Amino acid sequence: MAEGTDFLRWSPDGALLDVRLRPASSRSALLGVQDGRLVIAVHSPPQQGRANREALRLLSRLVRVPPSRMEIISGQNSRNKTVLVRGVDEDGIAALSSLPGQAGPHPSED
Q1: Is pLDDT of 81 > 80?
Q2: Which domains does the chain have, with CATH numbers?
């Protein structure tokens, strides 16, 4: 996995996570950062949105935000996605920010 990449941006609505999804994996896990994207492996197949739902559940547990506050805003049918996480702050996103790679600055840091 490459280091020094940004997968996290902040918008007025919350955190935007650039994600690379690996469906139908042997286990579900957060694998790190590669090419500026958070890599998530999920056991579910990419059929009928199952892999997307599992990825959101996994992210939900990591950032401690209910899945209802998460939305895939681009890449619904692609492995590369952008996920909006509403109602999360820097402390909530710390589990992801500690992965290899740089997190984007929060808008309050001018």
Answers
A1: yes
A2: 8-97 (3.30.1200.10)
